[in-house]
Amino acid sequence: MSLRRRSSRVPQLLLAASLLGALLAPPAAATSAHHSPLGGTGGAGGGLPLRVATYNIHAGAGMDGVFDLDRQTAELRSLNADVIGLQEVDRYWGSRSEWRDLAGELARRLRMYVSFAPIYSLDPAEPGGPRAEYGVAVLSRHRILSAENHEITRLSTQDPNPVPAPAPGFGEVVIRVRGLPVHVYVTHLDYRPDPAVRVAQVADTRRIMAEDRGPKILLGDLNAEPAAPELAPLWRELTDADPGAPTFPAQDPVKRIDFVAVSKDRTGVRRAWVPESLASDHRAVVADLLLRRR
To answer: How would DSSP label each residue in 35-58?
Structure first.
């Protein structure tokens, strides 16, 4: 199957029609790792509340390696988040996820809007079939006004002799929270021990985010811990919503490589936490934010 690169400016927007006229209101999530609000967040009445989360779903498989989308749906519902960034999302990719559209299914089950940004988009296994895609996604209770799939530097896992090159899979959506436009980005950085590609990806991320104004939220699996030198440039403009707990591996986690990060000037963090779960090989990070209009 051949690989087709997507333009960085082409929207990858799918709407879950079942959301129209109704919003999901599940019970508040029980959290096993609850932490105090971070400093510099402002008072309870100082902004618009928004709960966000990031979750690497491991193509629908749990820590046990078993594909179980019901289990992951229940976990995502329990977060009671308004916006969720997902990584390792299959869309008709292969047998490991039963050739299903995980982004679309999760959106329908949770009654949320969805934007999917493929990293890889391969020719279908059979003529006329859907393309086999793998990437990242944003689920949102708020209507998605626009979506883009940006290119950042990547070292392809589909090429036997890869070299760093621009490739898609840095997703961006704009939602409106009580009239306030908010930019949400979802990403999955390179996993290799050599940080060189992540260094380039962080530079690309900062360049893309610098083009936008207003509150900005970055959700992702960065495959590096908070103090890693390659991530240091991110913290010039962004606040790490530190949940005070590791996220990987899901069973007996030892490091935090999953992040919610927000623009310092327009977004405050009230609290952040890591729920205990084995529904994926990662744990989620959840954060309660306050969005400032100015």
So the answer is: -PPPTT---TTSSEEEEEEEEE-G
